[in-house]
Amino acid sequence: MFSTIKAGAINGIHSYLMQVEVDVSNGLPSFNMVGLPSTEVREAQERVKVALKNSGITIPSSHITINFSPADVRKEGVSVDLPVAIGILASLGEVSEDKLKDTIIIGQLGLDGEVKGIKGVLPIVRTAIENGCKVCILPKENAMEGAVAGSGIKIVGVSSLAECVTYLNSKDSEKDLLIKPTVINIDELFEKEALSLDVDFADINGQAALKRAMEVAAAGFHHVLMVGPPGSGKSMIAKRLPTILPPLSKEESLEVSTIYSVAGLLPADKALITERPFQSPHHSITSSALTGGGRIPQPGVISLAHRGVLFLDEIAEFSRITLDLLRQPLEDQEVHIARAGGNFTYPASFMLVGAMNPCPCGYYPDRGKCRCTEKDIAHYLSHISGPILDRIDICVEAPKIDFSDLSSSSSANESSKTIRERVMKARDIQKERFKGTSLRFNSDMTPSDISKYCVLGFKEQRMLERLYKQLGLSARSYHRIIKLARTIADLEASNTIKDVHIAEAACYKMADQKYWS
After folding, report:
1. Quick one: how far is CA 290 from the chain centroid?
2. Contact present, 260 and 273 (Cβ < 8 Å)
3. Is the separation of the CB atoms in 46 and 13 below 8 Å?
4. Residue predicted with more confidence, 401 or 225
5. Could you tell me which residues are beta bridge partners of residue 486?
6. pLDDT, tens only, 364-374
7. Cβ contacts of residue 369 below 8 Å, gap of 6+?
8. Would the pTM of this model clear 0.85, i.e. be above it?
């Protein structure tokens, strides 16, 4: 007999539905798989046979042929174990094919018949909804993850092959009593996952200019580079940046959760990522780990930082080749990877935050402490190339903290909650400004968007012209100053960009002029 089971798989970060076609006929006993199965998919035949036996199901000696359609796409992963087993049972008449209408089945089988969790459930279920599937049978371990994909589909989590067969063979009126469908209220999930303030900006004494720069960066989602001696609080401030960022929207949360689901990094106790990611890789990270690697590339660190913060501590210690890999993602907000198995595109809309010393010893230009030669300093700073600097909106110094600031009480410092309230007001202004467009923050604006949303007066235009000539700005830096000025104006709830806003924005380019010019 012949049967067809709907299943799903991942290709890069995208998912697609596949048909698992099973034919069981008389003939020389064999178990054949076709349709470009990978090694782990081919191994499913052994897992399925043993799992069926240990579940108390006997398969007669038959000629079994499995086809994975579409046949021109290479099948990866272990999500086909359960649909293959159910397809064999349907072909043998142990499961009615009518019970499988509008149903997608995914899951990995253990040798004892246990249904184990898999990667990429969230995007697979979302694709199933788009294709009109009404029921999704998946591992119980992934049931919460599948339930957040959206309404319109019944999520049934099963823990074993026997339980899955019993569910499929039961009457429709009894199914919900046998296994209660998993339902999640996303609104309640966001309320429960309140912002955790284990760290706070109130912990930081002094560094008023640096904290102001981080506030501007958070309000417009601008890239930041901090330059200063050791112990000036750069890492401390960077780790507190997520506490003042606007919360993830539901749409952004699904985007981030999809990436983590495909990478197999979605926490078991969380059905959805509700806080902005914060990734801080070591400077020894490889190129493939940063951008994504493997024969079928997995999302790299820059994709795991999507809609969040990518913090590169001691950024000058990263190899120049590694840093230059960020040029295209910073500009296009996505990373393109070409492999023999195909071309893959991963989202990479992140906020880059870098921290570095001004020289190898860390104390330049204090010649009382710094013993680095001019050549050492130039070589050290050269790790940050001109094109990377050009893509960083804010370059700010983190000076040594005065004793008076260090010894003062932290109770007078502004808390993350207070700063975040101002950031959220600026974010609401941007949300209203960009309504009906794909733009989210001021940093997303293109030159054409700038001419539309950042109209300058004569006085402000003349000021920008002088800055452009005096600082030797590139066209990209010119536009970034305007975007920064727009964010500063939003923090002050100003409808127009004024000269004082442009002046502050220009100050955030002075540090790179000082060190790299």
Report:
1. 13
2. yes
3. no
4. 225
5. none
6. 888 888 989 99
7. 361, 363
8. yes
